[in-house]
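Handout, page 2. Input:
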Amino acid sequence: MPLFLSSSEFPRPRLALLLSATALTALPAFAQESVTLDPVILQGQGSPISGGVGYTVSTTATGLKSGAPLTEVPMTVNTVTEQELKDRDPVQIEDALAYIPGIVASPWGMDDRFDQFSIRGFDLGVYGLFRDGLINKAQSFSGFKVDPYMIQRIDVLKGPASVLYGSNDAAGMVNMITKRPTFAHLGEAKLSYGSHDTVELAVDWGDVNADKTLSWRLTGLTRDGANSIKNSDDDRDLLAFSTTWAPTDQTSITFLAHWQKDNMMPNVMVPVAGEDYDTSGGTLPSDFLNTQHPWNKFETEQASIGWQAEHEFNDSLKVRQNFRYARQTTDYNHLYSSGLTAGAPLPANLNYTAFTVDEKARYWALDNQLEYRGRMGDAEHVLTFGIDVSKQIRDGSMGYADPGYVIALSALNFDQPVTEPGAFNDARTEVLEKGIYAQDHIRFGNGVTVTAGLRRSWVENETEDRLWGMDSAQKDNATTGMLGATWDLGNGFVPYASYGESFTVNIGQTFGGEQYKPTEGKQLEVGLRYQPAGTQLQLAAALYNIEKSNVLTSDPVNSGFQIQTGEVRHRGLELEARGQVTEAISLIAGYSYIDAKVLSSEDGDQGNEPAMVPEHSASIWAEYDFNGAAEGLSLGGGLRYVGKTWADNANSREVDSYVLADMAVHYTWDDYSVALNVTNLFDEEYYATCSAAGYGCAQGEGREATLTLSRAF
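Output:
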């Protein structure tokens, strides 16, 4: 069933509206051009939040909130399209990012609690996630995890994004675009069966009213499953609803809501033979090491509601408002490996520590934008002024058992009961961030565009400590800017250059009582984009240099305290090819080189390479669509290489490189489709990262296979 309208299905003015009906500007051109129809728009790629065409998109609303062609954004923007999500069928958002150059997906191994990734060598954990341009960051252990089935596109903006998005790491951010109404009928039902007896049922259903002013969409999913760890769970119930009301060509509002309940398992750190213990007497049994204690659990329930509204006063002036409120409850128990007791030739005991979390987290985020489009002299300007505010609240307690539990090697079992540990933290934390920003996107007649932006941010942190009665408050502010330019040479080549700044808040004080300043980041980037004429193939290359200052490091005079003399630098090269090579072959290929260095530190690691940064990484995915007698059949396959890394900044333990293979087989006939997706095809055993303290390594995900039957209706 088609997801986008053809020109015969809808009047021309209304189509232009609906392509922008999700409260973001649909076209980067000026208002006089916004109703111009061409084949690209009719395929849906004209919208800066659409799922794209094949493996490519032409516009983005992540790099510029007003929406602009990718070729006019002076920073790297990588996109996971709707087609790629369909072909690869990732289980998690982090899996969806696996074929983007400069990203390491799942840097902490098999850990279903959060979506984790690194960008350009910086481990963002769960603090670089946005959804529909609004924060979706973790608070403590509440990760607000998003299921890929409710997402139609993922944009990755590389480099500092603080001008538009406030406090954020200099490496970049990930913006997930939620599925929303299409103003056409759609229907899909899916039944899947996969590894570890995982069963999943999903439905995606939408329609439109008779006069095509109101459209809705319902997306649901239920899963009963596990992962390769014994006694694990991977269960989910999800229900998402959206509706768009477009009463006139000038006004639209989209409401987005969802509810999700998860039952998952925490990660496992495994002692490595020959590294964490002597192997002269044999090795520890892997079937025990890869087993969860029955006491372990990670249960969450979350819900959100919000809207994206837009009103166009005239051809030059429009306003947008984006809002979301979300909350999550987290019930978490974890008996985790905390090292070994020395013994010969094998360790005498395995040590475990009990840890608990019982918390509630919520946030609300509001972004108001005023956009002006017009001509000033020889240039066309798109001026965006914004005021945004967000509040994050975490309320709960944590428990910790020290000393923990000891399991003798002579009697390996998890039969012993676990007692709820006493609380070491019971607090309520509130973070309020406010910002004012302005960005001007200037388009000259000679193919040159210039983008400049400036922001002022204020951040307040307040903590009410119920356990120790030591309440605290902290206020920070920061001014950040960006400047960039692109130049369309007219032959498919578009060089660009940019400078950008970022900030992230540090909580706490020095020994002298001075409040920590925000960590500051800055990036210089130059790049080149190329799209051969008449093709859907996009090629890109980027060189960048990222530096962070005011990084926390040990106080050399006052033990146990920190100062802000730390500096780190990452510089590198990224290459990407994406799109149609031929009518039958689609391709995604990427390569990343990172030269990372600790420039200044009091921790004894100055001059070393930071932990978890692969110098080289590369990936390639190709999809072949058959025709003729085999029409409807497609085969896909990919390889992912991640180079060796250090386990710590001291460079005391090396983590080996690894190569993983993935595959997909799809066959479609009439309204039916069957697909087989396999990740880590050869069940390669590898470690994503390791602890230098002897706690072992985080195992990477093993082979996962899923067979899916779908029907469109």
